[in-house]
């Protein structure tokens, strides 16, 4: 069955030394958002590792867009992809700093972003699998 979108957040590698050396950033999670169609996040925040080492989330989510059971969702996604506005079609991944348990007065902070264009995937008819996204 191909009428679904599978989003996997396998791992995260920090390359920016400013973030790696910032001691207020200790735990990280990743949020994935597609306009106002979808918002998912890794269920756990994991400890930040040193620059160049991978944090493994191994997170996977499936969004069904089949005609039979998910027609409204499918139609909405189609309308988003057909809009000339360039930003409605892109998945935005946000790396978020989660404050430690003992400092819950601190806010979650967005520290990094990456984007994937669904329109581009459909046009090229090629999934993005096992690739790093800057």
TrEMBL record:
GO terms for biological process: non-motile cilium assembly; retinal rod cell development. GO terms for cellular component: photoreceptor connecting cilium. Residues 1-133 form the RPGRIP1 C-terminal domain. GO terms for molecular function: thromboxane A2 receptor binding. It holds the Pfam family RPGR1_C. InterPro entries: C2_domain_sf, RPGRIP1_C, RPGRIP1_fam. PANTHER family: PROTEIN FANTOM, RETINITIS PIGMENTOSA GTPASE REGULATOR-INTERACTING PROTEIN. This is FTM protein.
